[in-house]
Amino acid sequence: MAPSVADVLPSASELKEKAEQKLNRAYDEAQHSAYKYAHYLPVYDETTTFPPTEPFEFSDKGLLADKAKPHLLGLKDPNVVVTKLTPRVGTEITGLQLSELTDEQKNELALLIAERGVVVFRGQNFKDIGVEKQKEFGRYFGRLHVHPVGAHVEGAIEFHNIYLGSDNLYRNQRLSEKLTTTGYHSDVSYEHQPPGITLLTLLAVPSTGGDTAWTSQVAAYERLSEPLKAFLEGLRAEHSGFPQAEHARRDNHFVRREPVRSYHPIVRVHPVTGQKALFVNPGFTKKIVGLKSEESDAILKLLFKHISQSADVQVRVKWDDQTVSLWDNRVTAHTAISDYDVHNEEEGLRHGFRITTLGERPVGVNGLETVW
Q1: Is 174 one of the annotated active-site residues of the chain?
Q2: Does the annotation count 88 as an active-site position?
Q3: Whether the Cβ atoms of residue 137 and residue 198 lie closer than 8 Å to each other
Q4: Sequence-ordered list of residues with C-beta below 8 angstroms from that of 287, at least 6 positions apart, any chain
Q5: Whole-structure pTM over 0.85, yes or no?
Q6: Of the residues 152, 239, 264, 334, which is catalytic?
Q7: How far apart are the C-alpha atoms of 18 and 276, rounded to whole Å?
Q8: What is the mean pLDDT of residues 283-296?
Q9: Quick check: is 211 catalytic?
């Protein structure tokens, strides 16, 4: 039976909303006229605003998982290959489609991500299943985060756009004055209930370069001396979204939700595994509450150097256009590695999108909670 006209045509309210919406395209349309994923290219909705995020109940799907993970790791299928990328962080899976996982498998995946920090799936069709199914997959793990200032996918403001090409160098502008393009962070950690699982898929990748690296914040914590661990476990640190918003406004970008700051435990306890992890990062952590500025600066400098330079608790992943990586922001910090020449056509374009789910209000050792 053919669909009715009402099913096909947008409603009057939808038409009005679309007419009032102002979209700023952050790419050269002519340059991408033949690009298969042009509908995922970066745009800025410069109309829609959001109120502050209200507290909400969250239950991690990993709590529902069988700890042995028989439905994910115990399959007797020779095509399914599971490999530890390093001893402490990172697992790679081939032969399983994320788009076809059952709820049992998704629960076990949530637990595996918590345990291993990042799980990399190869040979995926995820980028071709459509926006609504992509959203549905992300929502299974938690409420979808809307980035307060970043570019997104048209029609999917929840999809944070990852784009670096010759027609849009914004992501590299502030890095050009530094010795390195790397910058370890945990996604939008300034949120009162910061992210749990993030999913990233790339639609176009350079022929070489453009990797992502992750640090295990669990292993980084475990490397600290016992006296330093005990000292940090009773402290909170300020994570702030204000500098990000200020940079956006300075660069004439729209701020769709006003910035917030949160005071999170420096040592966080994962709600599923019970593991302790450092929860500071160079991207958003500004100071340690209760310490003199010189004390705070010295300790954060030590921790940031530890997180960024401890290659023996890190994993570096090379992308292709059928790879999807999922990581737990509560136990990792990560960085893109922009080591390719965006002006060289042979090296190509790096473009993808990120789906980020919000998690619980962080809790540290002895019940030390986040405040704001």
Answers
A1: no
A2: no
A3: no
A4: 237, 238, 293, 296, 297, 300
A5: yes
A6: 334
A7: 46
A8: 98
A9: no
